[in-house]
Amino acid sequence: MRDAAFDMTASPSTLPQPNGGEPLLDVRDLRFSAGGEQLLKGVDLTIRKGSRTLIMGPNGAGKSLLLRLMHGLLQPEHGRIFWQGAPMGRQARLAQAMVFQRPVLLRRSVLANLKFALSVRGLSGKARAGRIETALATAGLSHLARRPARVLSGGEQQRLSLVRALACEPELLFLDEPTANLDPASTVAIENLVLEANARGITIVLVTHDAGQAKRLGEEVVFLQDGQVAEKGPAGEVLTNPQSEPVRAWRDGRIYLGPNTRTIRDHASL
Ligand SMILES: Nc1ncnc2c1ncn2[C@@H]1O[C@H](COP(=O)(O)OP(=O)(O)OP(=O)(O)O)[C@@H](O)[C@H]1O
Question: Which residues form a coiled coil (predicted)?
Answer without folding.
Answer: none
